Fold this protein.
Amino acid sequence: MSWTMKSVTFALAFALGGAAFAATVPAGVKLSDKQEMIRNNGSEVETLDPHLAESVGANNITRDLFEGLTTSDNEGRLHPGVATSWKQTDPTTWVFSLRKDAKFSNGDPITAADFVYGWQRFLDPKLASQYGTAYGIFVLNGLEIAEGKKAPSTLGIKAIDKYTLEVKTPNPISYLPSVLSNSQFAPVHKATIDKFGKDWTKPGNMVGNGAYALKDWKVNSKIVIEKNPQYWDAKNTVLTRVTYLPVEAGNAELKLYQSGDNDFIYQLPAGQYEKLKKDFPQEIKNGPILGLRYYSLNNKDPMMKDVRVRKALSMVLDRDILAQKVTVDGQIPAYGVTVKGLEGADVTTYDWVKWPMAKRVEEAKKLLAEAGVKPGAKIKFTYNTDDYHKKMALFASSEWKNKLGLETELDSLEFKVLLKKRHDGDFQIARNGWLADYNDATTFLTLVQCGSSQNDNFNCNKKAEELIKQGNEQQDVAKRKALLTQAAKLVMDDYPMIPLLQYTLPRLVKSYVGGYSTKNPVDRYLSKEFYIIKH
Amino acid sequence: MWAYTFRRILATIPTMLAVITVCYLLLHLTPGGPFDSERKVSEAVLANLQAKYHLDLPLWQQYLYYLKGLLQGDLGASFRYADWSVNDLVAAALPVSLTIGGGAILLSVIIGVGLGITAALKQNSFIDYFVMLIGNIGSTIPSFVLGPVLILVFAIWIPVLPAGGWDEFNVRFIILPLSLLTFINVSTIARVMRGSLIEVMSSNFIRTARAKGLPLKTIVFRHALKPALLPVVSVLGPLAISSITAAVVTESVFSLPGIGKLIVNGASNRDYTLVLGLVVLVTVVAVLLNLLVDLAYALLDPKIRY
């Protein structure tokens, strides 16, 4: 099969498979007369402008209010959004066909020009979107525009006609449709923005194109959205009203849940998973997501720049005990920069993972001795003030003390201070974590790539870099995966960081809420996929 | 009295200016900036963000810029909440805090003074011991313990009230947080009132009034209450101001969208303008409350009008 044929088939498979994908109510399920849901969102959102949204919470809501060319269901599977189908006409050119029944919430039709305007606005550094450089890399000239080196008009996007859009990419990106499901790539209504300026996101002003429209927004209190009758798939959207709560404190959230004032917990309070699993066996949900807890090792630090020290510190940490006895919330031990469920690269690991701990300790001691680090030597561990992180830090320091004789100085900082210190390289060992922006290995590889702004370890492996480059030029999906896996393995053989656990997201969801799946690797749940069962 | 009031108002200006200046400097000296996030922003984006919020200017120019806006009633744009100005955010949060905090002060004065008088007049009786017990509980059990207990009892075990949240048109959301703050304040006021009235009731002029055969009601309400209220008035200012700090906990426990929550979020996000706006607000409230206390004091005791 030729390359182009494969692409067309791929596109058609998506288009056919996703003909109808809003709430799928199983046969026999009786729906409640009142289709309203309250879901906690973890914190107050910084904005409802999809192009400026940065936090997980803000993106949760903007995905309900805006829809891009593609979208995903509650199992994380890709589906058509405003685009009905797409094809790669050459390695760096994609053509999207837009549905003709897609409208903004005020009834205006959505055309290819709306996407051109939206994407140019998103990447314009004048808007100062913090996602600009992260997502700019996927569209020709996008990064240069986000960095202020080229004009927004040079962006690789063109309206071929009213309902056909052409997108040029800087290199072949087979997973582009998946990236485009992020609401940063959604169209926005130019006339509304021109009319209201920054107030365009306020209730009464906002015009969106998602399954829901903004009804009310009381800062720090609630955001209410209601079903958008103009949405192209409104007939399959079951929930009529969703209230997002910005409750941060886990215990307050739990009390709201217990009292019936919240149907969907954002995240359980630390340390209560086992108890709540017993108390709410039908309602507890927990599944792995594309996220990695790790410790950054400052590869520029005089002590940490020795790979033997980095390796010794990593190999004595017993991830099984950490997961089963310390964090105790179902997280999975991790030994590589890539995690389970990720597309574009396999999980990599170390040979010593299978060794008995005694042998690992013996080897680690030998490595430290060779590096000239004697028992009693001091290391400094920096983390942000939080009970969960503190527990993990105490465990790590105890492992390093008991197994290697190292003395750990724990430095607990406010989150903003930790971020600054990490980005500035002002630390020795620091707590870190990463949640995938999209389901592809490249989102994790940015953590260990040379010169990457997300690389807080400050390592650089030129060979791995070359493999990543080759992988990203590769059009064959399997070959690309092999190259990126090889790169991930190679870079981790340098021990730039200490992978610890793959995230899971334990939460409680009322048993009458239908449509929730624990098989969603990106933890993105569209309200249009939920429904309330009669109870 | 007017001259005294005018002098007191004038004296608040340097106080407020000093508070704003110190807070401004402290905020800018604190490590970690408003745009530090997990995702390191590009230099171009950072430069645009800094220009947007005038952070690219020298600090003294930023300060003057801020003061100029402040004099025009503009508290600036929030660094964190891009869709809102600080004026918007304060205007949304203030009614919540005023309802809970102001309501609690008002209720606690009424209940606390009443309980204090009763306890003082029934000294060493069951009522007195009961009031003292309430006072001790209120002053020793912290609100972050008492709040969840109230939620457990009245929202989960006996589900008659919401566990948290806010709806300005529904009084049910007010009851628990208002009760919590009132209970804490009542304990202080009742104890002060009791002690003060007992002391006044043992003074010579009350003894004279008793000797003249005046009824107890007249003695208490016409002669003893006014001087006995002086210490209560003294604690009202600090109590009202401490209600703002107590509100941080109360708002967190009950998920209320008030000033306390904004202060915490503003500080942790390094949202300089938001924190400064709230500092200005709290300072104005504190200064006004102190002024009111001083004026009330002057009204109750003419010797104080200097």
